[in-house]
Amino acid sequence: MPYTMNMDEIYKKIENGERINKEEGIFLLKNGDLLIMGDLAHGIRMKKNDPYTVTFVMDTNINYTNICYTKCSFCAFYRDEKRGYTLSIDELKEKVIQAKKNGIDTVLLQGGLNKNLPYSYYLNMMETLTSIDGIHIHAFSPPEIDLMSRISGKSVEEVLIDLKNRGLKTIPGGGAEVLSERVRRIISPHKISTRRWLEISKRAHLLGLKTTATMMFGHIEREEDIVEHLHNLRNLQDETGGFTAFIMWDFKPGSTPLSKKVKHPATACEYLKILSFSRIYLDNFSHIQASSSQGNDVRQMALFFGADDFGSMLLEENVMRSAGFVEHSTAEEISHIVKVAGFKPALRTTDYKILRFI
Ligand code: SF4
């Protein structure tokens, strides 16, 4: 007997705190009402986190190289060896010292996949930067860890232990885009597979390194792909509990090759619907971030559609900037936006410990 979905039953299930399955997820994402989903997601967020507080972190995103062989079709950041740059360890150290003088305590380090960098470059980087007092290093997404494993001939586990022993604290969950092979074959055929991304994240979790999970939507993905992505994350979180937060942003077309395949950029309503859906589906994630990819007005609205955290006040950001999108807020601006929305802004660490209310 064919099973017919009933939207009211799915809403009821969510309201009762029951987990929805993949099929129900696809049905909800395709047919759900934005405001009802937002309301359900906000209810979950208010139960999971301090209902009065919205956290954020003061950090800077340093891209140590933009040379990358992967050439993802959505990326406006990478360059070839002739036109690209790689920062020396001294230059990186100087940037971190400057960031610290500006009140930054967390440094996000990510780079293109530059096959010419020796393994020792990464180890020196860690040793040098973690010797700077009071700096938390949040570095190297799964594709970078995979590259280090291949250039060093070491296993992923050995690479992670080397980095951890040199002071790596947490890992950003970049390079996920959409964890569906149908999508990855089109937008990033030279990047690691879904299975490899999950495997590296799992290895990190098992070694006690917490990671975030990300998603970039608004290009060629379908609702089924988004649900597959979130389902993969939810399964791994059930197994390890190692994800601290989920962060999503929409594709910025700029002049990238992928822009020709995309009819229109994601709208605010699409962003808020997928955000609410993520809060509902990722029932084992503690935190959902409101990203800046739709601008600060939508980011503020996201606080009523499932987000409990304002992400970061990025002192430096180059990837979205390369696609022509610039959104920079000071800590004071973030604090104002959060207060006007009715919450108390609080500075936090990368692992979500509150430092102080501001
Ligand atoms: S998204 Fe990352 S891996 Fe892909 S081309 Fe850009 S820098 Fe390289």
Please provide a written account of the structure.
The chain is of the alpha/beta class and 358 residues long. The protein has a single domain (29-357), classed as Aldolase class I (TIM Barrel), CATH 3.20.20.70. 42% of the residues lie in helices and 15% in strands. The chain has helices spanning 7-15, 22-31, 34-48, 89-101, 119-129, 142-152, 156-165, 181-187, 194-206, 223-240, 268-281, 295-301, 319-322, 331-340; strands at 53-63, 106-110, 136-139, 170-171, 210-217, 243-250, 287-288, 309-314, 344-348, 354-357. Strands 1, 2, 3, 8, 9 and 10 form a six-stranded mixed β-sheet that branches. Helix 11 links the parallel strand 6 and strand 7 (287-288). The N and C termini lie far apart (58 Å). The relative contact order is 0.16. The mean pLDDT is 94. The structure holds iron/sulfur cluster. Iron/sulfur cluster (SF4) is lined by residues 68, 70-72, 75, 77-78, 112-113, 143, 188, 191.
> Taking Cα atoms only, what radius of gyration do you get, to the nearest Å?
20 Å
Total separate domains = 1
User: What is the highest CATH level, the class?
Assistant: Alpha Beta
Termini separation:
58 Å
- Largest sheet properties: 6 strands, mixed
CATH topology: TIM Barrel
Bound molecules: iron/sulfur cluster
**Number of H/I helices:** 14
Q: Per DSSP, what share of the residues sits in E-state strands of 2 or more residues?
A: 15-25%
What general outline do the C-alpha atoms trace?
A: globular
Q: What is the architecture at the second tier of CATH?
A: Alpha-Beta Barrel
* Total number of strands: 10
- Spell out the helices and strands N to C: HHHEHEHEHHEHHEHEHEHEHHEE
Structural class assignment = alpha/beta
CATH superfamily: Aldolase class I
Question: What is the typical, i.e. mean, pLDDT?
Answer: 94
